[in-house]
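Work Package 4 report. The design task specified in the project plan requires that, given a folded chain encoded as structure tokens, an amino acid be chosen for each position. We show below one input record used in the internal validation round.
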């Protein structure tokens, strides 16, 4: 029966679907219910009639060919690199990390239009370990893009919010395969019960962060712990807001959550986990106006080192821009490319006036990008497009670490 190749990954973006395979290249296709249903049918070995474009990424057996490596195997290698820095950590979280890793290979259709990025399996396991240590009470997850609810449900009662139909389907199919004794409760639009002990929430834009914390606070019934995952640059506005609202920071765990690119890469954006005492009243909502959001998060600079020399051709800059246009939240409005012997540049903007300036030095195998103004969806599209266009096993994104952890400055 026809199925997806073992090396193929499908990712869902705001406007299009992306099929990638290190041995077949990449292809953007229309984001439609029909295409999405076909991909899920192929991934779960159900009969279907794939289009000619999707058929290029299919196999009659689903088995690896000689010399091929799955994205899950590449991710496993990255996991080992990150866990060996802390003695004994790999052994402590091994079972949970292996379970999270199995989710990645079992169902390689991932929604990347969620507010939060994916995480390395070891990062998911570290989160599970810290959350379990807070008590035996019920747990609420305001989002679950990694299958954390399935891992925690082995020891706790878990409720997970899944407003995305694609993510809900991904988790539901994983649940069927796991056959858990006490499966997590997956909510799409209905509110969560208010009897939880801990809520896991996510910091993104000021407006979305406030909404996430408020949902978490309501799930606690006004008493308990809010665990908040924070990345750069969201820490910049968050520390002042927490101080202004008088929120008590109970503990902070630095750099435990690393951003996973499901095709087998890692963006070294280590996120912090901050444990907050649940406020007894609703927090003041930050402004939702686009202008105020830009003032709070005006720009971000990203460096990428050790780009693949074999893939650094002048034509690759056009390929990158084409892929970026397909993955970005809004259609492309303008692009300008210049290439010289020492420096290649790209200026790219979309119809919402968000954009970037890229400087690429081919001899040094180095790329430097300024996102100005900062836009969450465009940042994710850039990272993904850059790694798929120019990365190999040695490519690394310069760590972008938080300056603030809770209400305290990390650096002098």
């Amino acid at each position: 029966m026809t199925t997806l190749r073992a090396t193929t990954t499908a990712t869902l973006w705001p406007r299009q679907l992306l099929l990638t395979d290190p041995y077949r290249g990449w292809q953007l296709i229309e984001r439609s219910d029909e295409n999405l249903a076909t991909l899920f049918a192929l991934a779960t070995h159900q009969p279907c009639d794939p289009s000619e474009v999707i058929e290029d990424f299919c196999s009659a057996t689903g088995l690896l060919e000689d010399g091929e490596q799955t994205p899950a195997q590449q991710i496993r290698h990255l996991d080992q690199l990150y866990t060996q820095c802390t003695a004994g950590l790999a052994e402590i979280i091994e079972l949970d990390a292996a379970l999270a890793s199995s989710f990645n290979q079992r169902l390689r259709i991932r929604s990347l239009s969620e507010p939060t990025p994916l995480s390395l399996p070891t990062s998911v396991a570290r989160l599970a370990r810290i959350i379990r240590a807070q008590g035996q009470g019920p747990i609420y997850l305001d989002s679950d893009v990694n299958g954390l609810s399935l891992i925690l449900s082995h020891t706790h009662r878990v409720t997970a919010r899944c407003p995305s139909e694609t993510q809900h389907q991904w988790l539901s199919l994983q649940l069927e395969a796991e056959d858990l004794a006490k499966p997590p409760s997956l909510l799409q639009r209905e509110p969560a019960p208010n009897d939880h002990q801990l809520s896991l929430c996510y910091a993104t834009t000021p407006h979305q962060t406030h909404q996430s914390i408020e949902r978490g606070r309501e799930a606690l019934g006004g008493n308990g712990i809010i665990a908040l995952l924070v990345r750069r640059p969201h820490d910049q506005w968050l520390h002042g807001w927490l101080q202004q609202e008088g929120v008590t920071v109970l503990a902070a765990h630095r750099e435990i959550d690393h951003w996973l690119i499901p095709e087998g890469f890692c963006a070294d954006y280590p996120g912090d986990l901050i444990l907050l005492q649940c406020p007894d009243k609703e927090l003041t909502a930050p402004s939702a106006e686009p202008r105020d959001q830009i003032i709070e998060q005006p720009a971000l600079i990203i460096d990428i080192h050790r780009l693949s020399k074999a893939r650094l051709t002048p034509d690759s800059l056009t390929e990158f821009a084409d892929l970026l246009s397909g993955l970005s939240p809004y259609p492309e409005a303008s692009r300008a490319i210049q290439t010289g012997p020492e420096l290649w540049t790209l200026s790219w903007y979309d119809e919402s006036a968000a954009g970037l300036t890229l400087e690429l030095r081919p001899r040094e195998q180095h790329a430097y990008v300024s996102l100005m103004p900062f836009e969450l969806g465009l940042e994710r599209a850039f990272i993904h497009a850059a790694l798929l266009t120019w990365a190999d096993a040695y490519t690394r994104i310069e760590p972008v670490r938080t300056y603030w952890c809770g209400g305290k400055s990390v650096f002098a």
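The CA atoms of residues 83 and 90 lie 6 Å apart. Validation will be extended to a larger panel in the next phase.
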